[in-house]
Amino acid sequence: MKRYLAGSDDFNRWRVRTTEVVTTICLLIFAMIGVACRAGNGDPQPPELMIGSDVCEECGMVVSDARYAAATLIEDGHTHKFDDLAEMFIFQAKHPEDVVRAWFVHDYEAETWIRGETAFFVMSEAIHSPMGYGVVAFETRVAADNFAAELADAQIFTFDELNAWMKTRAQ
Ligand SMILES: [Zn+2]
Are residues 33 and 75 in the same domain? Predict the structure, then answer.
């Protein structure tokens, strides 16, 4: 067995090799962590909604009608669910400490999750949403226009417009 004496050429070569091996292992570990983090940062997924048992974060009532339901995904990974999509905007306006990663609403006709940020919203007194805000969401502008055309007082909002409007209601 070869013995390495501190200060000798052999010892210095051994030290350099060991440093290279440790550096390589560290780089591999960082690379694996990077891959794992990216895997967790894919497209945000909406939460599973249990109609009839999930409770609205804002008003505390049971979510009973999928057409008006909404949810937010917060940066730290937790979610909030709402029975009336307008309350999603009101709740998040009241909780600026929650950084919202993704907003989800149900398409009024398909009753499936769509992204709130790109949805079109129709507001009318003829729409009887659970908490009375009278707002519904559609995936396309055409669908929102067609629905609004049937209602005398309908207004169409983009996400940013509705968010600004609801912020005034949250104060
Ligand atoms: Zn509610």
Answer: no
Distance 74 CA to ligand 1 centre (A): 18
Q: What is the value of pTM for the model shown?
A: 0.75
Predicted confidence (pLDDT) per residue in 41-84, tens digit? 689 999 999 999 999 999 999 999 999 999 999 999 999 999 99
Cα(24) to centroid(ligand 1), Å: 53
Kindly state whether residues 114 and 159 are assigned to the same domain: yes
pLDDT digits (tens, 9 = 90+) for 119-141: 999 999 999 999 999 999 999 99
Distance CA 65, CA 137 (A): 13
Residue ranges making up the domain that contains 37: 1-42
Please indicate, yes or no, whether residues 7 and 76 belong to a single structural domain of this protein: no
* Residue 53 domain-assigned (yes or no): no
Determine the distance separating the centroid of ligand 1 and the alpha carbon of 53, expressed in angstroms.
Answer: 13
For ligand 1, the distance from its centroid to the CA atom of residue 69, given in whole angstroms, is 9
Q: Give all strands of the β-sheet with 135-138 in edge-to-edge order.
A: 135-138, 120-123, 155-157
Q: How many domains does the chain contain in total? A: 2
143 and 92 share a domain?
yes
